[in-house]
Amino acid sequence: FMIEDSRSNDPDAKHRDDFWDNKYSINRDRVPNFLETLADRILNTGKYLNAFRLAGNREFSNESQQLVYSSRDKRFMDRIEDAYEFAAKSLLDLMVKEKQLKER
């Protein structure tokens, strides 16, 4: 609802350096107030998970946790941060360990 896919019709778009910068974006008008400070984190989490899935040609496994908003309980923020850290680590491990990015 707040993340938009550019859905480019250009077949060469995925080979450009700016592909991930332009593929998905945040529609700031649709971001709920309680997620404003986390919107970029949510966007990057999704980008990392999608890149992981596409580069690894496999699904990832992670225990999903229900995300419940409460104005008194900020645990939803911790869950978003946990998801971000999982996605970033998964993609980095794939690129460095399995795809040997540092060796290229």
Could you write a compact summary of the structure shown?
The protein is mostly helical. 45% of the residues lie in helices and 6% in strands.
Q: What do the pLDDT scores average to? A: 84
Work out the number of β strands: 2
Rg from alpha-carbon coordinates: 15 Å
The major pleated sheet works out as: 2 strands, antiparallel
What fraction of the residues are assigned to beta strands by DSSP?
5-15%
Tally of helical runs: 3
Principal-axes shape call: flat
Structural class: mainly alpha
Strand order of the largest sheet: 1-2
Order of helices and strands: EHEHH
Task: Report the span from N to C terminus.
Answer: 38 Å
Helix-residue proportion: 40-55%
Low-confidence stretches: none
Polypeptide structure, described:
- This protein is mainly alpha-helical and 104 residues long.
- Helices cover 45% and strands 6% of the residues.
- The protein has a two-stranded antiparallel sheet.
- Helix 2 (39-56) runs parallel beside helix 3.
- The chain is flat.
- The model has no long low-confidence stretch (mean pLDDT 84).
List key phrases describing it:
2 strands, 3 helices, mainly alpha, 104 residues, two-stranded antiparallel ribbon
Strand-helix topology:
Elements: E1 3-5, H1 19-23, E2 24-26, H2 39-56, H3 75-98
Antiparallel strand pairs: 1-2
Helix pairs in contact: 2-3
